[in-house]
Sequence to fold (198 residues):
Amino acid sequence: MTDLAGGDAELIAASLEEPERFAALFDRHAPAIHQYVARRLGRDAADDVTAETFLTAFRIRARFDPARAGVRPWLYGIAAKQIGRHRREEVRALKLLDRTGHDPVADSWTDSADDRLAAEAAARPLAGALAQLSAGDRHVLLLFAWADLGYQEIAEALDIPVGTVRSRLNRARRKLRAATGAASGPLIEARTHEGDPA
Fold:
């Protein structure tokens, strides 16, 4: 997914002279950032981390380089740094999910009781395996699976080479398969983005 028509990069540039223009970026991207953060840290932290992400983006908007990265990867990169500050909460939530099998964030996304039961059965071992990943591997995997970023976008978001994204994603998938079998679903399923090699 690229920046929306209407030019996110142009909005950032315009917001340097007219700060209120930055609000349009918030309106466009905050729901997706919030959802991603909620999946990583839970709803309680999502509001704060999303606000911190956009506050940081606003403060550093003059440093945004449209030639280097799109706005989405830039925002997810800022969110990843904010999540890193809340890492202990994320690991604690994953361990709780591993112990209890209950994912309160996913509950609202599941329509039927059968889907909810299947998701909870798969979520327990998956949460335990996610908690065991290094922060770098977890960031790459979850930006890929939950934020739907491509390899290049993840590289831009985390300021790492694309090759590092590939190796971290491969390593994370291997570890999840070993820990959960084939029950990890979209987190380990091979998926490509336009422009990403299969």
Observations:
- The CA atoms of residues 23 and 63 lie 18 Å apart.
